[in-house]
Here is the input.
Amino acid sequence: MSDVSASLARVVAALPLPAAGWTRRTDVVVVGSGAAGLMTAVALADAGRAVTLVTKGALGDGSTAWAQGGLAAVLGPDDDADLHVHDTLVAGAGLCDEDAVRTLVAEAPAAVELLQELGARLDLDGAGRPALTREGGHSRDRIVHAGGDASGAEVTRTLGDGLRSRGIEVLQHTAALETLRTDDGRVRGLRVARISDGALVDAGDLHARAVVLATGGYGQVYAASSNPAGATGDGLALALRAGAEVADVEMVQFHPTVLWCGPGAEGQQVLISEAVRGEGAVLVDAGGQRIMPGAHPLADLAPRDVVSATIAAQLRATGTDSVFLDASHLGADFLARRFPGITAACAAAGFDLTRAPVPVAPAAHYACGGVVADLDGRTTVPGLYAVGEVACTGVQGANRLASNSITEGLVSARRCAALLAEDLPVAAPPAPAGGVAGAVDPSARAALTAATTRHAGVVRDADGLTQLAGLLGALPGSAPTPSSTPRRWRRRRCTRWPRSWLPLRWPGRRAAAATADSTSRRRGRSGRSGWCTGSTGAVTCTPAPSRCGPRGGAGGGVTGEGVLRPVLSTALEAAGLHPAEVVQVIRRALEEDLALGPDVTTDSTVPAGARATGDIVPRTTGVLAGVPVAAAVFDLVGGPEVQVELHADDGTPAQPGTPVLTVAGPTRALLTAERTALNLICHLSGIATLTQRWVDAVAGTGAAIRDTRKTTPGLRALEKYAVRCGRGVNHRMALGDAALVKDNHVAAAGGISAAVDAVRASAPGVPLEVECDTLDQVQEAIASGVELVLLDNFSLADTRSAVELVRGSGVRLEASGGLSLDRAAEVAETGVDYLAVGALTHSAPVLDLGFDLRG
Here is the structure.
C-alpha cells in the first residue's frame, strides 16, 4: 500500500448521522452559494427544473464574495483564444487538460456577457466595454473587474438577485451531512440539518434526481489563508464518502501577496490582489531592492507559484517573515479609486498602502485539485456532479492562472445545468443513510493547521511530509452529536480528509506540489497526478499508469516525444525554467553523443535486460544547481522504465558522499544518460558555487551580485538559473528586455542624451541603462533620467564619487569590469547596488559530482 493509500485508509470509521425528521423532493439539490452554485441554480430554474440550494452560511457566503481580481476572458482587440490557452497551460505546469482549457477559453466571453445581462455592474472603459487589466501569468489585458477590487462581491450580488427573482428554494444556515444513495451507489439526494443557536436541528432528507456540489475549497486546513471560515472541504468529504474519485488534492495554490500581520495571525487574512501588481506595484525586500527581476521573465507578474516560491526562498535566505509590496508610487488617489477595498483593509490592519511598502507573505489560496469531473460537472458517481473549486476538471493544472476560477465556475455551472436540463437522471428511492466518515476532535485543529502550514506549504520536503502524516495519524477522534455547535462542526468537517493529500515521495518546490510517482489516469489526460477513490467502507489511492510509451528504454536511445514526467516539469517551472527549452538543450546534447550510433561500449558490455541503480554524488563541497535537469536527462533517455528520486533541492549545500539524485532502470539507459547528466549538473553547480562565494564576499554591504550576458550559447536560461541558486540575481536575459546604451551606441547617436532620447522614442517603457567610462558621463546619464548606470572599470575613488552623484536621484549603480573576488568587498562597500561578474557564467569551474552505479 502506498503512503497516500495508508493515510487515506485511516478515515474509515463510521459515525452516526442525526435521524431525518422530514422528507422533501426536488429535481436537483445544489450545495454551495458561490459563483458556481448560484449560476447552476439560476440556469436550472431557467430550464424549468425544480431546484433547492443548500448553504451552510448566509446566501452568498464563501470565497467568491471575497474575490478581488475578476474574470479572465478574451475580450481585447490584441488578444486571442490561443494566447489565453497558452497562458493557462504554462501556469498549469504541464498538468492541464488542454481540451478543457480550450472549452473554458471559448465560452468565457459568453459567461461575462450573461453576467451583464443579469445586471452585473462591471467596470467599463470609455467606449462602454468591460475595462480590462492584467494579472500574473497573463500575456494580455483580459481581466474583467467590478467596483475596482470588488468583482466577486458584484458577481455574488448579481446571481443572488437572480436566484431570488426566480423564487428558487434556499436553505440557509444548513449543513450538508451526507449524500443519499441507492443500493447500487447512485446519488439520489442529501441529508441536511439546520444550524440554529449553536446546534444542528431539524435534520431531514432532500430526495433529488441529482446533487451538484459547489462547495469551494479547503483553505482553512492551514493556519492562515485567504479563504473565509467556511472553506473546510465539505464537498470533497461528501464526494469521497460517496465513492467518487478525487485527484490533485495536494496541489494547493498559495497566493504570494497576503498581508502579513505577525506570526500569530490565523484564519482568514487580507488578500492583496495580483491586480495591484498588474497596475505596477512591485515586490521588494526590507532594503527596498526588488526581488522578482531575474527570477522570471515576467518579473512581478510571473505565475503565482513562481512568485510564491521566490518569496519563500527570500524568506529562508534572510530569516525574515515577510517581503514587502510597494505600490506607493502609484499614488493615493489612484489606489483609493482602483482598489478601495484593499486600501481600506490594509488601513484597518494598520498599514498605509498608499504611502509605504506593506508586508506580505504567501498563504493558502486555492485548491487546484478536487473531485474528478468534466466541465459538464459529471463525476465518477452517477447522480453526483461537481462544479467550481471543489471540482478537478483539468483546467487549473498544478497552478491556477489568475482570475480563471470564477470564469471556470460560471462556465462549468452553465454546462452542468444544460446537461441536467436535457438528461436528468431517473428518480429512484435512496437506501437508508448509513454513517459519516471518521473525524478528529476539534481541540486538535490548532495542531493540525500549524503542522499543515509548516510541512505542506509553499516548499515541501519528504521529511516534513512524513512528520505531517504521523501527526495526522495520531490525532484524537471524536463523534458529532446533534447538539454540536456550528464552529465545532465546521472544524470537524475540515479535518476529515487531509490525510488524502500527502505526497511523501517528492520534495516539491512549488506552491502546488506533485508526487514523484504519479502520472496520468483519468480520461486519457497526460500528466495528471495520482487519483483517489472514496466509499463508505474504505478509501484507496492508486498511482496512475505512465503517460507515454517507451523512449529508448533498455537500448538507451532517445526516440520519444520529449515530454517530461509531470513532477520534473513542475520543478523546472517553479525554478523559472521552461521545460520545453530544457528538453531541447538536453536532446541537443544527447544527439551529439548518439550522432554516430548507440553507445557501442555499453551495448557491448552490458546485457540487454540488465537493470541497475545509480546515484549522483558530490565529491566536494559547493552549492547544487541542476538536480532536476540531471533527472530530466535520465527521464528522456529511459522514459517510464527509469525511476527517479531527488534527494536535494537546488540552492542547497552539496555534501560530499551524500547522493543528490538516485535513478533506477535499464543499465544501458543509465550509462547512456550519465555523461550528459553530469555535464549539466557539474557545470550549473559550479556556477552556483562561484556565485555563492561572491555573495558571501559582499555580505553585509547591501550590494547584490549579478551576472551578465556572457553565457554559453544555448545555455543562458540554465546558467542564469544557476546564478539564482547561488543567491545572485540576473541582469538582462536578452537584448529586448532592457535598453543598455554602451560606447558604440553613444558614438552612433552622438552622445548619451541623444542615445537615451532615441531609445525612448522607439521603445517607450523599456528600462533604460547606460554604461559610463567617466564621471562626466555619469552626470549626463543621471540628467537623462536613466534607471541604471554601469560603472565600467572605475577606480575605487571614482566609484565613491559616482555613489555621491546619484544619491537621492533613484538611479542605481552597477560596478563592472576589472572585478576580482579578493576585492569584491571593498568595491561593494563604496555603496554601489550591484557588482556585475561575467565570470559567474563564462568561466566558473565545475563542481565535481560523479555517477556511482550500484549494480
Q: What stands out?
A: Confidence is low (pLDDT under 50) at residues 1-15, 478-511, 513-561. DSSP finds 26 helices and 35 strands in the chain.
